[in-house]
């Protein structure tokens, strides 16, 4: 005790360090779940962050428009052409829709349960982003009040973003798929066909890597990857494109590197896919 | 500086960091405003205010954006402690001191964060962290030197410096 009294400052530093280590250890044990106080703080912060994020996005968009007027005008022309193409495709799809309706009626008659219809979709805005530069954890403005649940799947227009790590009343914390160490099952979409099955996870460098279950799988750079529907993620969500194929001579597996389809540094709006029935509000 | 003012500055910085500052990211890298403030306030002021704020807002940062609580808080604590122990070696009014502090502080923080993250089961690769580091140092230096020139010289006088 004498030593502690003689070294009060050092003792205080050691005590603070130990407290922080205990917090870290407890958090490691109860990974991904905040205390009620933590959820309360997050709820309060979400209320302040939402208008700030809106203001920031508004100013950024306004400035971008001012400084890139020519690019915006060119993009507008390209989009007009694209709209014309899509209108043509839309007409074709309307015919396909009729056929699909007939098939659905047939499947109902046969009591076939469609897995795809078991989900609800909740749109949300990103209100705050992690500032650490090498993680991709962000907060969205929808939570349990709107039906968002833990492990809900988060997508945007480009493809798979990640999953819900934690939820509160008006917020949810989302982790990007590139930060995940858990595996995602995928299929290669090639020549209008889903051929080969594989498994991927985050490579720790802001990308994805994985391997094919079939070592003889005929794949090449540029092939599109979609979720297979096995496990947590519903089938058919775009994950990315193969950027490199490597034949591992030791494991005899075909290893691949994947360029994610989502730009994780520029996410504003997302959709959370949750199991049907969990949606309370909206 | 009174603790309540320091708290308000850190709170403002935390909110700006998580919302507005991401609009200024270059090649996906955003300056770490909280880190800059912890370094500068530990360097400028006597006492343990900056250390306390670093721990508090580090915990808040972990709560909002981390998978685990405590990593950022431990890093801010150790960094602030390091600055507190060594700042008598630097002239606090010198702009080069701020540059040196930011350079070493940013490297130390990122390395500590990465080491703790990996120890706790994280998957981030060291090369990925190192690839971001140069741009982050430049960005943080711009922020700290800017804050030092605009506010630092007006707020704090350093009678211990030799030319006073």
Q: Based on the coordinates given, report the CATH architecture of the largest domain in chain A.
A: Beta Barrel
Q: Can you tell me the residue ranges of chain A where pLDDT is under 50 for at least 5 consecutive residues?
A: none
The number of domains of chain A is 2
Model regions low in confidence, pLDDT < 50 over at least 5 residues of chain B: none
Class derived from helix and strand content of chain B = mainly alpha
Strand segment count of chain B: 0
Number of separate domains of chain B: 1
- Tally of extended strands of chain A? 12
CATH class of the largest domain in chain A: Mainly Beta
**How much of the sequence of chain A is in beta strands?**
25-35%
Largest sheet of chain A: 6 strands, antiparallel, barrel
Radius of gyration of chain A: 24 Å
Spatial strand sequence of the major β-sheet of chain A:
1-2-5-4-3-12
Distance between the termini of chain B: 21 Å
What is the approximate shape of chain B? globular
What is the CATH T-level topology of the largest domain in chain A?
Thrombin, subunit H
Quaternary assembly:
heterodimer
List the helices and strands and how they pair.
The complex is a heterodimer of chains A (282) and B (164).
Chain A: H1 2-6, H2 8-29, H3 36-67, H4 69-109, E1 119-129, E2 137-140, E3 153-156, E4 159-167, E5 172-176, E6 184-190, E7 193-202, E8 208-212, E9 224-227, E10 238-247, E11 254-260, E12 269-275
Antiparallel strand pairs in A: 1-2, 1-12, 2-5, 3-4, 3-12, 4-5, 6-7, 6-9, 7-8, 8-11, 9-10, 10-11
Chain B: H1 3-18, H2 33-44, H3 49-65, H4 71-86, H5 95-119, H6 126-155
Helix pairs in contact in B: 1-3, 2-3, 2-4, 2-5, 2-6, 3-4, 4-5, 5-6
């Amino acid at each position: 005790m004498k030593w502690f009294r003689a070294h009060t400052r050092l003792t205080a530093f050691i005590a603070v360090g130990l407290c922080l280590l205990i917090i870290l250890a407890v958090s490691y044990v109860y990974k991904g779940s905040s205390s009620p106080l933590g959820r309360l703080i997050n709820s309060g912060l979400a209320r302040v962050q939402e208008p700030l994020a809106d203001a920031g996005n508004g100013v950024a968009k306004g400035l971008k428009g001012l400084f890139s007027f020519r690019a915006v005008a060119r993009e507008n022309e390209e989009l007009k052409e694209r709209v014309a193409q899509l209108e043509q495709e839309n007409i074709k799809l309307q015919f396909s829709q009729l056929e699909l309706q007939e098939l659905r009626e047939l499947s109902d008659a046969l009591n076939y349960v469609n897995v795809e219809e078991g989900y609800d979709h909740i749109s949300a805005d990103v209100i705050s982003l992690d500032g650490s530069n090498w993680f991709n954890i962000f907060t969205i403005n929808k939570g349990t009040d709107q039906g968002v649940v833990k492990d809900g799947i988060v997508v945007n227009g480009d493809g798979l973003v990640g999953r819900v790590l934690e939820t509160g009343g008006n917020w949810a914390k989302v982790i990007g798929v590139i930060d995940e160490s858990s595996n995602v099952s995928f299929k290669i979409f090639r020549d209008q066909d889903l051929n080969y099955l594989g498994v991927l996870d985050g490579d720790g460098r802001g990308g994805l890597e994985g391997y094919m279950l079939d070592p003889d799988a005929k794949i090449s750079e540029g092939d599109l990857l979609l979720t297979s529907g096995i496990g947590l993620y519903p089938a058919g969500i775009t994950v990315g494109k193969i950027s490199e194929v490597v034949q591992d001579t030791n494991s005899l597996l075909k290893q691949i590197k994947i360029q994610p389809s989502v730009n994780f540094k520029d996410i504003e709006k997302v959709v959370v896919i949750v199991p049907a029935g969990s949606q309370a509000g909206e | 500086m009174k603790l309540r003012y320091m708290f308000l500055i850190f709170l403002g910085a935390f909110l700006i960091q998580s919302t507005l500052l991401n609009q200024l990211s270059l090649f996906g890298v955003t300056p770490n405003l909280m880190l800059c403030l912890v370094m500068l306030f530990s360097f400028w002021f006597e006492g343990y205010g900056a250390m306390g704020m670093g721990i508090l807002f580090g915990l808040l940062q972990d709560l909002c954006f981390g998978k685990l609580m405590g990593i950022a808080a431990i890093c801010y604590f150790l960094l602030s402690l390091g600055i507190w122990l060594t700042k008598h070696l630097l002239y606090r009014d010198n702009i080069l001191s701020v540059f040196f502090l930011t350079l070493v502080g940013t490297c130390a923080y990122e390395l500590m964060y990465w080491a703790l993250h990996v120890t706790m089961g994280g998957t981030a690769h060291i090369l990925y962290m190192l690839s971001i580091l140069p741009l982050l140092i430049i960005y943080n230096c711009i922020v700290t030197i800017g804050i030092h020139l605009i506010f630092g010289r007006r707020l704090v006088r350093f009678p211990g410096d030799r030319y006073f």
